[in-house]
Amino acid sequence: MQANTEHIGIDTGKPLEQLLEKIADHKGCGTSSDGGKASCGSSDGPADMAPEVWEKVKNHPCYSEEAHHHYARMHVAVAPACNIHCNYCNRKYDCANESRPGVVSEKLTPEQASKKVLAVASAIPQMTVLGIAGPGDPLANPAKTFKTFELIAKTAPDIKLCLSTNGLTLPDHVDTIKAFNVDHVTITINMVDPEVGQHIYPWIFYKNKRYTGIEAARILTERQLLGLEMLTAAGVLAKINSVMIPGINDKHLVEVNRAVKSRGAFLHNIMPLISAPEHGTVFGLNGQRGPSAQELKALQDACEGEMNMMRHCRQCRADAVGLLGEDRSAEFTTEKIDEMSEVVYDAETRKAYQELVESERLEKVAAKEAALAEMSDDEVSDIKILIAVATKGQGRVNEHFGHATEFQIYEMSSAGSKFVGHRRVDLYCQGGFGEEETLPSVVRAINDCHAVFVAKIGGCPRDELKAAGIDPVDRFAHEFIEESAITYFKEYLAKVRSHEVVHEMRGDADIRQGAYISAA
Ligand SMILES: C[S@@+](CC[C@H](N)C(=O)[O-])C[C@H]1O[C@@H](n2cnc3c(N)ncnc32)[C@H](O)[C@@H]1O
Ligand code: SF4
Ligand code: SF4
């Protein structure tokens, strides 16, 4: 099987010697052979992060926003059962075309999962993380979860292991988690107040007994917070997922943020509720809506302070494979993997490939820092704008407007560029033609942005965007996103200063987070 080369623009089908030659060419500008230290760029990590923490997160696409442009993850669906019920979950849903939590095409045994991991690791050498996130709860299926970790730790020791749990039985497993070198654990904490929790969790099953109502929520919150404290004490990084459910826990999540921050959580990922009647969930059927893009961003902004907020979560399937935002799970079905005679795990080629990825990444970080350093004092202002970007990865503007199924959104200010989310849209260009009914919905989805960066764009969408007050920009095609965005922002500030344009806030984007915006 050939390695995926599309994302870093190098041919990993070449012999290893040629790859290593390329790596040698990059040695002048940082290298990971010295443990990730570099002579340019910022591979040492953010100034406010301990080196040992940076070492754990720097290649993890979920724990580092910057890494997600370069490194991939995969989930293996070995954990079907769950010990609680959430009103937003329905795991009976089995669909190859839907990408949302709990959805899988097939469940795997630990042995099948282990073989799949080796096959994916060979085909996608920048896959650095193996997570177990269901389709149920990994710790309600501890034997299967830990057997999978055991098999993978033996055959592919360079792959980082992580799991995502509701936390009910977490305190019972922290020692085992530590023993398997699981560096990253995600706990879903939607409330710290049982009054709120009773509207999210109809029941839990704990110590052979079923609990409902306030009592169920009280036990759950106590176990979750205890589990978090134990992870922190054990030196395991904890990420907290919270599902934002308007009218139920949206206001309360600021309190949740405080509670998890004070107990040592590393990252808080507030995700939008995904809810539609056809999903068959309690919330879907009773019409509970998810938040809008603006509501979600406002809450994330309110929680951001000393604690990192995750804004690049793609709410993946329980069998997702690839870079965040792309789904290559269909390429690795059990049927296809069974057809492979033997999967050889080539750790050397993986390492060599990742060193190339790292050098490209350092180049990108250095370009961003250089662009930012050129910002003069008189460019400092209160102005903020949003820029939408069509990209397929690598941190570059490299997607055609018509081929984009999502736009990454960057907030620009005189402090620099900040990734603040993504917007999924229907595909505008199908079979070479623009879908006229789709275009207005795409424009509405990025209506709060001042510009959209694309690799290419046709005449019709260009005119429509301009008419909506959004600047279509293709001159940064294939350049690094953040460096380009800083350049654009500086030009924008200059135009405001010279009164060539009047700065004004843009309107609200008409997009419900967590759902595809649809032309229908
Ligand atoms: C499928 S769960 C699996 C792991 C574990 N059972 C848990 O709930 O944490 C992964 C994540 O997806 C979230 N999730 C599931 N259904 C969702 C929905 N309809 N909308 C938003 N998030 C959802 C869960 O809350 C959890 O954070
Ligand atoms: S804990 Fe996870 S798997 Fe279980 S019902 Fe909730 S979302 Fe679904
Ligand atoms: S659901 Fe979010 S946190 Fe989990 S793998 Fe996907 S992007 Fe990462």
Automatic annotation (TrEMBL):
<dbReference type="InterPro" id="IPR003731">
    <property type="entry name" value="Di-Nase_FeMo-co_biosynth"/>
</dbReference>
<dbReference type="InterPro" id="IPR005980">
    <property type="entry name" value="Nase_CF_NifB"/>
</dbReference>
<dbReference type="GO" id="GO:0051539">
    <property type="term" value="F:4 iron, 4 sulfur cluster binding"/>
</dbReference>
<keyword id="KW-0411">Iron-sulfur</keyword>
<dbReference type="InterPro" id="IPR007197">
    <property type="entry name" value="rSAM"/>
</dbReference>
<keyword id="KW-0479">Metal-binding</keyword>
<keyword id="KW-0456">Lyase</keyword>
<comment type="pathway">
    <text>Cofactor biosynthesis; Fe-Mo cofactor biosynthesis.</text>
</comment>
<keyword id="KW-0535">Nitrogen fixation</keyword>
<dbReference type="InterPro" id="IPR013785">
    <property type="entry name" value="Aldolase_TIM"/>
</dbReference>
<keyword id="KW-0949">S-adenosyl-L-methionine</keyword>
<dbReference type="InterPro" id="IPR036105">
    <property type="entry name" value="DiNase_FeMo-co_biosyn_sf"/>
</dbReference>
<dbReference type="GO" id="GO:0016829">
    <property type="term" value="F:lyase activity"/>
</dbReference>
<dbReference type="Pfam" id="PF04055">
    <property type="entry name" value="Radical_SAM"/>
</dbReference>
<dbReference type="InterPro" id="IPR058240">
    <property type="entry name" value="rSAM_sf"/>
</dbReference>
<comment type="similarity">
    <text>Belongs to the radical SAM superfamily. NifB family.</text>
</comment>
<dbReference type="Pfam" id="PF02579">
    <property type="entry name" value="Nitro_FeMo-Co"/>
</dbReference>
<keyword id="KW-0004">4Fe-4S</keyword>
<protein>
    <submittedName>
        <fullName>FeMo cofactor biosynthesis protein NifB</fullName>
    </submittedName>
</protein>
<dbReference type="InterPro" id="IPR034165">
    <property type="entry name" value="NifB_C"/>
</dbReference>
<dbReference type="GO" id="GO:0046872">
    <property type="term" value="F:metal ion binding"/>
</dbReference>
<keyword id="KW-0408">Iron</keyword>
<feature type="domain" description="Radical SAM core">
    <location>
        <begin position="68"/>
        <end position="317"/>
    </location>
</feature>
